[in-house]
């Protein structure tokens, strides 16, 4: 049951919030913010409740009628007092965005009408807000008294927003995250015990805050307002957060001006010092004909790359534009795929798993790895710096500071070097350390990987086959530029004839992305074997199919349970194995279901529960295409039963009902019984799992015959 919040809860959590600024963060507070806190503490409890309730609202314009809370005595009187004291002001000082979010459309029309703009009642609210923004460009608004009685504008947002920025590290953090935490909606890092500051100085914090607010403001402007906006770039920036927000603002301004004044857009992009802006500037400058400048800039990046991502772009772009090479590295890598695998077309729903199944059928071990393998290794190995006392500022943080700003190695370089030397001396030493870390921290919230059973299984396989020196070299690259090496890793890991390799799987039409190119190139640079495997589709006669039928206590998988499972494995149109079992559903079987299936409560009393047979079902259906008549019913129930046990169940699906409609149109009914009768398929015990599965298997043969005849 969801928790309820006690009276004056919002006030209590606001004081909890303010407590954050009584320690190391107090030095970051400027005079106006300190005055806000002092003034707030000087209010009466009722007045504090008003301010806090308003602070919890998403937008600064608030309706006065919404303050009728039982915890507040005489709320309207308190609100009027706070207005006289300057905590709230009239709508004259609100911008178009705040007005558009806080007022109803009807009141916005009243406001426009009072300022000489008349619009029909049927016009949409976005159009009304846009008209309001245009009117504000000509001067301040006249606001009727009745609107200023019904609405107030928070007049403490600058101080509140600065405090929120210091606490959450961004402009999206809101006070309602405290209530989401206490209601159980949001998980937080309860083990964060030491209070840290995000910034080293007040100057750094204020500079970052300025550009963060300007970026939010710019994004909320209309096209016309953006044309009147100029980026002020003389504010002191002393930290990674500040540089990031400044670069993002300049990039956004550059993108806007490219379509209005191309040279001005290029100027903004050139001022932004980010990979994204540099790449855009290079591309656009080249299109504008500034080829000599672009060539010089590319050579500078190649000689002294700021990141692996930008280096990959620069090398490729330089080669194609100035080396007379026509195709990109990404295209070449796909064209030069080291192997081509032919898979049954039904694996297009889950191509990586299809390739893994293909290898297993050929006696080759293969594992799904992608980003999870590398993020798990990185997160566990460096947990104490990423998530320990120096990694997270407060319990709401998920992504460690040093990863957000990509300065992990710059911050902890000496400690990282010593740690790698100590624990990466051998694969066995590293695995024992990872095992210890997983045991100590299992289940803790983090942003790098998901906890699950068998978390270290794939890592153990990798460590059994690789040269630990190569791994240590790659981990050092991740530490130095995690932003470029946090994703894009190959899809699968393969162990073939005692040799380990990674493979990036690409089906027809798939593209190789830049982040994948960077990760693959760096893995190869460190000595790992990496292939790009191209998949071609065809109808594979040797592809195993598992034809499934289940009986249940009712029609909804969330509310009902399985009473019987029947499975038939088919290869090349022939049955190769079958499996069936009654299942104790651990709940009553309704009489109408017993009448339909013949399965009674007595029959399943001594039958195994699903947990007892789950491994049999997993093994029997592994690497098979899941087939059933009205497949989503059977698949949904089995997937739900697996989920109840904390297990995942994923198979490609084929529906014999849908395929029979496609290949054999015009039949009176496509129910399993009717089709069995039509095609003279033996079905003695309809609505018993194995008999129905055997009948559906015969339908699968008819479908395959029809497909091969096309």
Description:
The protein is an alpha/beta fold and 710 residues long. It has 4 domains: 174 residues, no CATH class; 124 residues, Serine Threonine Protein Phosphatase 5, Tetratricopeptide repeat, CATH 1.25.40; 204 residues, no CATH class; 165 residues, Nucleotidyltransferase, domain 5 (2-Layer Sandwich), CATH 3.30.420.10. Helix content is 52%, strand content 11%. The strands form 3 sheets. Strands 4-8-7-6-5 form a 5-stranded mixed beta sheet, with helices on both faces. Helix 15 packs antiparallel against helix 16. It is globular, with a radius of gyration of 32 Å.
- Distinct helical segment count: 34
Domain unit count: 4
Would you report the number of β strands? 13
Terminal Cα span: 57 Å
Describe the biggest sheet? 5 strands, mixed
Tell me the structural class: alpha/beta
Radius of gyration: 32 Å
Outline: globular
- Helix content percent band: 40-55%
Beta-strand percentage range: 5-15%
Strand order of the largest sheet: 4-8-7-6-5
Low-pLDDT residue intervals, each spanning 5 or more residues = none
Global mean pLDDT? 91
What is the fold's blueprint, element by element?
Blueprint: H1 9-19, H2 31-41, H3 45-55, E1 61-63, H4 75-84, E2 88-89, H5 96-102, H6 105-114, H7 125-136, H8 145-150, E3 151-154, H9 157-168, H10 176-182, H11 202-220, H12 223-227, H13 240-258, H14 262-271, H15 275-287, H16 291-303, H17 308-322, H18 329-335, E4 339-344, H19 351-361, E5 365-368, H20 370-381, H21 383-386, H22 401-404, H23 408-423, H24 427-441, H25 457-465, H26 468-480, E6 492-496, E7 499-506, H27 514-525, E8 530-538, E9 545-552, E10 562-571, E11 574-582, H28 591-597, H29 601-604, H30 610-621, E12 625-628, H31 631-644, E13 653-655, H32 656-663, H33 672-678, H34 689-709
Parallel strand pairs: 4-8, 7-8, 9-12, 12-13
Antiparallel strand pairs: 1-3, 2-3, 5-6, 6-7, 9-10, 10-11
Helix pairs in contact: 2-9, 3-4, 5-7, 6-7, 11-13, 13-14, 15-16, 15-17, 16-17, 17-27, 23-26, 24-25, 32-34
């Amino acid at each position: 049951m969801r928790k309820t919040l006690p009276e004056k809860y919002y006030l209590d959590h606001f004081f909890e919030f303010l407590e954050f600024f009584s320690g190391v963060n107090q030095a970051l507070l400027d005079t106006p913010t300190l005055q806000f806190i002092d003034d707030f503490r000087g209010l009466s409890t009722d007045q504090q409740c008003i301010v806090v309730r308003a602070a919890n609202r998403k937008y600064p314009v608030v309706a006065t009628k919404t303050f009728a809370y039982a915890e507040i005595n005489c709320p309207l009187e308190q609100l009027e007092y706070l207005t006289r004291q300057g905590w709230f002001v009239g709508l004259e000082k609100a911008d178009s965005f705040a007005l558009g979010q806080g007022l109803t459309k009807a009141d916005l029309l009243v406001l426009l009408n009072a300022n000489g703009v008349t619009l029909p009642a049927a016009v949409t609210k976005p159009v009304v807000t846009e008209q309001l923004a245009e009117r504000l460009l000509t001067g301040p608004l006249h606001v009727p008294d009745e609107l200023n009685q019904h609405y107030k504008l928070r007049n403490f947002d600058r101080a509140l927003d600065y405090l929120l920025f210091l606490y959450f590290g961004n402009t999206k953090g809101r006070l309602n995250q405290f209530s989401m935490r206490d209601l159980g909606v949001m998980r937080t890092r309860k083990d964060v015990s030491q209070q840290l500051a995000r910034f080293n100085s007040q100057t750094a914090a204020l500079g970052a805050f300025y550009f963060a607010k300007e970026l939010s403001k710019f994004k909320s402007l209309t096209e016309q307002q953006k044309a009147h906006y100029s980026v002020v770039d003389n504010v002191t920036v002393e930290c990674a957060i500040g540089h990031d927000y400044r670069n993002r603002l300049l990039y956004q301004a550059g993108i806007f001006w490219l379509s209005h004044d191309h040279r001005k857009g290029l100027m903004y992009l050139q001022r932004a010092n980010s990979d994204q802006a540099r790449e855009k500037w290079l591309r656009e400058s080249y299109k504008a004909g500034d080829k000599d400048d672009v060539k010089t800039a590319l050579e500078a990046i190649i000689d002294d790359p700021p990141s692996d991502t930008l280096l990959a772009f620069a090398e490729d772009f330089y080669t194609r534009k100035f080396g007379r090479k026509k195709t990109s590295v990404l295209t070449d890598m796909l064209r030069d795929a080291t192997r081509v695998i032919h898979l049954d077309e039904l694996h297009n729903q889950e191509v990586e798993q299809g390739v893994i199944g293909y290898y297993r059928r050929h006696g080759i071990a293969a594992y799904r790895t992608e980003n999870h393998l590398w993020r798990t290794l990185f997160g566990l190995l460096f947990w104490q710096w990423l998530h320990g006392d120096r990694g997270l500022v407060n319990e709401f943080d998920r992504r460690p500071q040093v990863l957000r700003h990509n300065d992990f190695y710059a911050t902890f370089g000496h400690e990282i070097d010593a740690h790698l030397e100590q624990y990466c001396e051998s694969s066995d030493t590293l695995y024992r350390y990872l095992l210890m870390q997983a045991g100590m921290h299992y289940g803790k919230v983090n942003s790098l990987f998901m906890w699950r059973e068998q978390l270290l299984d794939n890592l153990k396989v990798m460590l059994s086959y690789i040269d630990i020196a190569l791994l240590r070299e790659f981990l050092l690259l991740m530490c130095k530029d995690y932003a470029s090496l946090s994703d894009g890793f190959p899809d699968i890991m393969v162990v073939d004839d005692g040799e380990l390799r990674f493979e990036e799987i690409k089906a027809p039409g798939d593209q190789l992305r830049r982040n994948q190119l960077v990760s693959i190139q760096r893995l190869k640079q460190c000595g790992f074997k990496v292939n790009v495997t191209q998949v071609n589709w065809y109808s594979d006669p040797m592809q195993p199919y598992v034809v499934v039928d289940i009986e249940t206590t009712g029609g909804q998988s969330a509310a009902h349970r399985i009473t019987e499972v029947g499975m038939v494995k088919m290869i090349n149109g022939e049955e190769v194995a079958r499996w069936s079992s009654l299942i104790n559903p651990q709940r009553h079987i309704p009489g109408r279901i017993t009448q339909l299936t013949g399965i009674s409560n007595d029959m399943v009393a001594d039958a195994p529960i699903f947990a007892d047979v789950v491994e049999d079902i997993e093994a029997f259906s592994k690497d098979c295409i899941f087939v059933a008549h009205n497949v989503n019913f059977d698949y949904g129930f089995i997937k739900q039963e697996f989920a109840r046990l904390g297990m995942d169940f994923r198979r490609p699906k084929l529906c014999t009902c849908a395929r029979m409609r496609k290949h054999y149109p015009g039949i009176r009914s496509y129910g399993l019984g009717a089709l069995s009768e039509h095609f003279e398929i033996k079905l003695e015990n309809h609505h018993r799992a194995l008999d129905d599965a055997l009948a559906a298997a015969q339908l699968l043969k008819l479908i395959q015959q029809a497909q091969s005849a096309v």
